[in-house]
Design a protein that fits this description.
Distance between the termini of chain B: 29 Å
Number of strands of chain B: 4
GO biological process, one term (chain A): amino acid transport
Structural class of chain A: mainly alpha
Number of domains of chain A: 1
Number of domains of chain B: 1
Number of helices of chain A: 11
Keywords (chain A): Amino-acid transport, Cell membrane, Membrane, Transmembrane, Transmembrane helix, Transport
Order of helices and strands of chain B: EHHHHHHEHHHHEHHHHHE
Membrane topology (chain A): Multi-pass membrane protein
Largest sheet of chain B: 2 strands, antiparallel
Subcellular location (chain A): Cell membrane
Shape of chain B: globular
Oligomer: heterodimer
Radius of gyration of chain A: 19 Å
Largest interface: A-B, 47 and 45 residues
Organism (chain A): Bradyrhizobium cajani
Distance between the termini of chain A: 39 Å
Number of helices of chain B: 15
Chain lengths: 286, 337
């Protein structure tokens, strides 16, 4: 029973990670870059959300409605102002640029919000749970998981089935050939970063509801997103989702064995996945 | 049929002879520090030497081998802990334990590389960070090394301050010789040609017969050992190590900042950057978070607008390398340039 509980909690935790991983998989798939400030942007949005909610006494839903467009605008600006200048064959410039951004953001947040941990009040939602024959399942984590599934499915649909998605896949496959056929890669890039950061806006609200956030939390979230993407298979959206579940379950089981081992278990599963199936669980073997 | 003129290969320049002499003088001055400088200065010299060494190793990785790592702190912490364990638990002489401690980063780097080299450029970088985090968490959970509380180097109390300082400055001189001198030697050797070719274009280097993957592997191990060496000396000077300090990602930010601002892909760049960071840290670290915001923004700025860093800017205007790694052909009756 204890292990079934760990499994369920792990899958629910994976729902949270899936929301971080989705944007990272999208950006890597399209531009072959990793935004090291990914986690810090989520924390920035979370802290902004907490301050906004306090200042205008916003409810959870109205906060999401306010924060997501803000996040999308932030993503668009990030692409236009920084990432467009460093995207290219050489991975070094984009890594260094986003690394610098990550350091600057972390310390800027430290200056503005101090090192205190903060969280969002959800009016009882964060503590509500359902009893399923001895296993208690939180309502909020279920909402998080369902949101992650809906987000992954919609993004997958957009990429497979829409005109924008075709342009995106074309730009990902061959930027220059795509540009020749009338796709503007810069617009595609800006739109995909806007989508990735907008998803982080949703993740930020859920993260500050279910746990606490502080300015130094970003790198850990970046690492979880990264592990999920690699376990699942680089660039595949459902792969990132499955990878998040694997990571969440590994951490939950680790925490049951010894509270100090939870995060470490996640890292170990990641390294094992890299050793055994470097192409990811969702990819066909080459 | 034309015959090729007989040429001499010139490898040193006037500027490099001056720089070489200055380096020898600086190393001598460093070793003599216990007799002419006070303890505060020696502490600073140790710190600066460690920055130069760690940055030089990162430069070798990112600038030449194309392996961007944000997890070199794994080797700093591992070597630091190896030193403390050898001294405190096995009673090894601390100064003898420094070279012995190098075995740990060397062993750690092999599986790390074998696992991570499958990852694409940016993913490799974050992969190294995961390894550093995993090693930190393992250390935090090991009661043998006092878990999260860390270790103190008590054995050092058996030496007088002056003895410790003599040993520290000699170790720092060896560290600089091995990391900076070693990189210089490596880049001037035939492997240096291969490394420079790899820096400019790994694919065409491969087609010219450079074994890119093997060279990358060897550079990764060498950089791990060099970085670990600096880590062991740094924490020996600190007399204390904890998982949070030894495996601090701040080491990654320091190396990236130093190399990017100083100038990537050159020995001079890492030295200039290390000096700049060292003095910036002395003067501005009192401003705390705002200082770090400026460092972050400066790194960002360098990545976008000035990829060659300060040395790239200087060397594009003045042809006066301190550590020339190229070859220049000079006709025998020509006095050279």
């Amino acid at each position: 029973m204890q292990w079934l509980d760990a499994l369920i909690q792990g899958v629910l935790l994976g729902g949270m990670y899936a929301q971080y991983a989705l944007g990272m998989a999208l950006m890597f798939g399209v531009m072959r870059i990793v935004n090291i400030a990914h986690g810090d942007l989520m924390i920035l949005l979370a802290l902004t959300g907490i301050s906004l909610a306090a200042a205008f006494s916003l409810g959870t839903l109205s906060l999401i409605v306010v924060l997501v467009p803000l996040a999308a605008a932030l993503g668009w600006a990030l692409q236009r102002g920084i990432l467009n200048k460093v995207v290219g064959e050489d991975p070094l410039p984009s890594l260094i640029a986003t690394f610098g951004l990550s350091i600057a953001l972390q310390n800027l947040m430290l200056q503005i919000w101090s090192a205190d941990t903060r969280s969002l009040r959800g009016g009882g939602l964060e503590s509500a749970s359902i009893d399923l024959g001895g296993v208690y399942i939180g309502v909020l984590p279920v909402i998080v998981l369902v949101t992650a599934i809906v987000l992954t499915a919609s993004l997958d649909f957009v990429i497979r089935g829409t005109r924008f998605g075709r342009g995106l896949r074309a730009a990902a496959a061959d930027t220059e050939a795509a540009a020749m056929t009338g796709v503007n890669p810069k617009t595609i890039y800006a739109a995909s970063t806007a989508i990735a950061v907008a998803i982080l806006g949703i993740a930020a609200v859920f993260q500050s509801l279910r746990a606490t956030v502080s300015p130094a939390d970003g790198p850990a979230q970046l690492i979880y997103a990264f592990e999920a993407v690699i376990i699942g298979g680089m660039g595949s959206l459902w792969g990132a989702f499955v990878g998040s579940m694997v990571l969440g379950v590994a951490q939950a089981i680790g925490f049951r064995i010894d509270p100090g081992w939870g995060i470490l278990f996640g890292h170990v599963i990641f390294l094992a996945a890299l050793a055994i199936r470097p192409e990811g669980v969702m990819m066909k073997r080459r | 049929m034309t015959t090729l003129p007989i040429v001499n290969v010139q490898r040193h320049t006037l500027s490099s002879r001056i720089a070489m002499s200055l380096s020898v003088v600086a190393l001598m001055a460093l070793i003599a520090m216990p007799w002419w400088a006070d303890s505060g200065w020696i502490r600073w010299a140790v710190e600066l030497s460690c920055y130069i060494a760690i940055a030089q190793m990162w430069n070798l990785l990112a600038g030449y081998a194309g392996l961007v790592s944000v997890g070199q702190q794994a080797f700093i912490g591992a070597a630091g802990y190896a030193l403390f364990v050898l001294c405190q638990k096995f009673g090894v002489n601390p100064f003898l334990a420094v070279p012995l401690a190098m075995i740990v980063p060397a062993i750690l780097s092999v599986p790390t590389y074998l696992l991570l080299h499958r990852l694409d450029g940016p993913y490799f970088a974050i992969g190294t960070w995961v390894v550093a985090e995993a090693v930190r968490l393992v250390t935090t959970n090991l009661d043998f090394v006092n878990a999260g509380a860390g270790l103190t180097l008590r054995v050092m109390t058996q030496y007088r301050l002056h003895e410790r300082e003599v040993a520290m400055t000699i170790l720092c001189a060896i560290l600089l010789l091995v990391t900076v001198g070693g990189s210089y030697w490596l880049l001037r050797s035939r492997h240096g040609l291969a490394l420079t070719a790899m820096r400019d274009n790994p694919v065409s280097a491969g087609s010219q017969g450079v074994n890119v993957s093997r060279l990358r592997f060897l550079v990764f191990i060498a950089a791990a050992v060099g970085t670990g060496f600096a880590g062991a000396i740094y924490y020996m000077a600190q007399l204390r190590i904890t998982p949070a300090s030894g495996y601090d990602p701040k080491w990654a930010s320091i190396s990236i900042f130093i190399v990017m601002v100083g100038g990537i892909g050159s020995i001079e760049g890492a030295i200039i950057g290390a000096l700049l960071y060292f003095f910036a840290d002395r003067f501005f670290s009192q401003y705390g978070a705002i200082y770090m915001v400026v460092l972050g923004c400066l790194t960002l700025f360098m990545a976008i607008y000035a990829r060659g860093g300060i040395w790239g800017f200087v060397s594009s205007r003045f042809d006066a390398p301190w550590f020339p790694v190229g070859r220049r052909l000079v006709l025998p009756n020509d006095k050279g340039t």
